[in-house]
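Methods — Computational structure assignment.
A single polypeptide chain was analysed. Its primary sequence is given first, followed by the predicted tertiary structure written as structure tokens.
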Amino acid sequence: MRFRISYRLLFLAAFIPMAAGQVLIDHTCADLDLVPPSWIEEVQDSIPSHYAHTSHGGQLTWGLYFIEDGNPFYSYVTGSSYLPSEAGAWCIFDGQETATYITPDLYWETGTGMNMTRAVLDHNPEIRTSMWCWCCQLDSYNESQVQAYLDSMSVLEAEYPEITFVYFTGNAQGTGSAGYNRWQRNNQIRDFCMTGGRVLFDFADLDCWWFNPSTSSWEQHTYEYGGYDIPAEHPQFYGEEYAHTTAESCLQKGKALWYMMAVIAGWQGTGIGESPQQEPCGISLRVENPCRGTASLWFSASIHSLVEVSVYSCDGRLVCVPFRGQCDGGTGRTEVTGLEPGLYLVKVSADGRSLTESMVSLGTR
């Protein structure tokens, strides 16, 4: 077992163009401080939800508990097999009408389960979102079984167009051949959501990444199997304290859950301000294009912003970070050297926002 600092998933989340309506919630969405309080209130006021799960899914509700315990502003309330009603709190119907431990057959995998989900939605027309969380089924499910999940969710979406159905990847605790199978099936779900404009809560990604406060960077844990580096639960989250993991892992997922709900409620994320008159990002980027092995990069950001300029290869590998430091307004300039011929992506980040530009290197003369 080993872990490495990796930027690949961060790269993908930042650079892959999303289909209309598609929302990807992963470790890059685990900073609750980025979400404006007004959108938290909007969730509490307007987005009653349905959440079905087994024990692993309890990591999300534990996360909500820890967040509220630290700051009562993030008030929520769950009802076991009923939808609670509490002003100023996010209200969640937990389970189905006749059960609280919801295996696949009780939500989407059978006709009976589909009807149980329909009953909750039919009897509680206030509900605006519905989601079901995997346990460890993806360690063994095959492609056709996962396709059945995707098909059933699509049927429910067609029947209830006013409700947002949230897709999940499965937890990343499995290793060996089981972990490899889970990785393939999670990628199947990711591909479906990316191309189809769905909302995806990437539970597995949140399992694999941990923010190291001593280095101020994200670390992704992987293990090697069959020539692949397979993402797996970070050792920082090993434990059986809460729903098969640690309190820290639950807290990370709870933050991402609030972030997702704010987006569903209408918040446009960290790249777009709440005011229509506000600049889209408050940052700018210009690259020398094409270049011959050495490229000049110009950027600007708000006064007193901490700015980072990163260069990635076309397959998502971090090439270098030519600039990381304070920006006092105006335009800054940096340079990257030694670029082999090929396509690169340059990213500038500041204040939780980012811009990217493509760049072509022709190599040295």
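Note: The radius of gyration is 21 Å.
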